[in-house]
Amino acid sequence: MDIMRIHAKQGRVDTDRTEALVILLCEDETLSTPDETLLDRALGGALRELRRSREFEGKAHEVMLLHTHGKLPAKRLILAGLGKHHQLGLDQIRQAMGYAVKRVRQAKAGSFTVALPSVTPRGASMYDLSQTLTEGAILGSYQFTAYRSEAPAGKGVTAMTILVSQKNQVSSSSEGIRRGIATAEATVFVRDLCNHPSNVMTPTKIASEAKAVAKDTGISLKILEQKEMERLGMGALLGVAKGSYEPPKFIILQYHGAKKKDDPPVVLVGKTITFDTGGISLKPAENMEQMKADMTGGAEVLATVRAAARLKLPLNLVGILPVAENMPGGRAMRPGDVITTLSGKTVEVQNTDAEGRLILSDGLAYATRFKPAALIDIATLTGACVVALGQFAIGMFGTDTKLKEAITSAGLRAGERVWEMPLWEEYFEQLRSDVADMRNIGGRGGGMITAALFLSKFVGDYPWVHLDIASTDWSERERAYIPKGPTGIGTRLLIQFLITRSLKQESTQA
Length: 510
Ligand code: BES
Ligand code: ZN
Ligand code: ZN
Known about the structure:
This protein has helices spanning 34-42, 46-52, 90-106, 126-140, 170-195, 203-217, 226-232, 235-241, 296-310, 356-367, 383-389, 401-414, 447-456, 491-509; strands spanning 5-10, 21-25, 63-67, 76-81, 111-115, 159-164, 220-224, 249-256, 266-270, 272-276, 316-326, 337-340, 346-349, 374-379, 394-398, 418-420, 438-439, 464-468, 474-475, 485-486. By secondary structure, it is α/β, with parallel strands linked by helices. Strand 12 (337-340) and strand 13 form a beta hairpin.
């Protein structure tokens, strides 16, 4: 998908010449905002009338298109609702923008202008607002058409202008746009990677995607092949890959943005199962096709490293993707098999469908070699996460309060919220094995927790956070800026975390 061109400019809503002018309005706002008053005057009182008749109330989800018949230089006016003022947050703006951009597309307008909303969430800066509008527009217009033989009608929406009222707002708005493009473009990359079916998006194809990222950004890349994994002793990743014809890959991306090359890095590890059949512990047929997205964590890590490099963030970052396909072939792991992981710990595999924690155990053990300042893994890890949290929260576990707080606030900022779950040692009794150091399933009860606790045995003493995105990685229906299918949720959280962290670092160094 080509990313929309977006820029900021100074101007007035009643003089801007555009195919469509979008304005975002709150529910309980009387004709008090200057923009609404200007437009109402130009349209001979039409907006006041719409408000009075309650044809347009400004509720969230609400969008209305009016033709202006030459009364305004803008050909069409699109009103989008933000909901109640006291509930207004950045995500309401992102959502309203998502609905508005779909309306622009329906109207077959190729480009449009959006006025910076004059009623804004408390504490939101010009950066934040512009970043949010950019994200809403790009993510709301996402479509995956790679396998359609008929090209989609029209060119789609190719350009957006953010209208600011003062000249001195243009540069900060442009900086917000730059960030918004980086985060949205990364999410689009993840959605595309996860939408491609598993006969195309194989471990080998993931490796070539990583090569393309390395080439594009100039960051260093190492891909370990099966032989090397055997030499190192990655028994967990190799065990999972055994049932498939597709050879596994172990991908390491390294970006150096810090002033000091040896500054301890942030290390991200992403579960990258290109398809999860469950292996010999075969999954039921229903919804199994969704398991093509069991690589979301890895895709998000890849996209985040690319975004950090493109944004030239001043920090060191490592991305690790253990990649395999989980299949029930003749050489596949059996329930009861014992494997030796890279860390040296042994695991009894009681269920081959609990493969994510296995490949991550090798990924995390490898990650500790970098002595990370922060270690974060992200994975579509458990069905129990879906049961516990539904669709709107990412499950979070961690060993470090500061890191958990930073992830929580990045999630809030990005509209990709996390919810903390307990990482209590008591649960480990469920993971005891009669033959090995531990087993890979925890039995009934607390499935998301026992999975996280399993991972915790491979992270050493480094500050660590685990994110279970099984709840959010796939959407059952289309939402304001989230499509049906792979969502890419988690990507913007990770990038926001890195942006905030590098800003802090810069200010302490100054
Ligand atoms: N990839 C699945 C988890 C998953 C389920 C992700 C639903 C997204 C939606 C994972 O590998 C898995 O199969 N987990 C098992 C673990 C169980 C065998 C302990 C599960 O949750 O059922
Ligand atoms: Zn599985
Ligand atoms: Zn899985």
